[in-house]
Amino acid sequence: MYLVIAEQILMLAGIVVFLVSLGMYVLRSGDFKSILVFWQATIEFSKREFIINRVGLSMMVAAVLVRFFNYFIA
Fold it and tell me: How far is Cα 70 from Cα 6, in angstroms, rounded to an integer?
């Protein structure tokens, strides 16, 4: 029960943190086009933006791992 709630919180918080990092990039650089064409790898994050971005992605990956744990083990 608690892991299901933790999974949802991790996923939502991870998405929010990830979007905050993208917002910080757009505010700093004014380059909204790089966000829209993310597959071209034109975004150059600052160190702070990069760390925040990776924290958000890590939270989302952790949420997926919790879901697998709930499904297959618990």
Answer: 11
Q: What is the pLDDT of residues 4-40, one digit of tens each?
A: 999 999 999 999 999 999 999 999 999 999 999 988 8
Ramachandran class of 60: left when φ > 0, alpha when ψ lies in -120 to 50, beta otherwise: alpha
Q: Which amino acid is at 59?
A: M
* CA pair distance 1, 51, nearest whole angstrom: 31
> Please, which residues have CB within 8 angstroms of residue 27's CB and are 6 or more apart in sequence?
none
pTM: 0.90
Q: Are 57 and 22 in contact (CB under 8 A)?
A: no
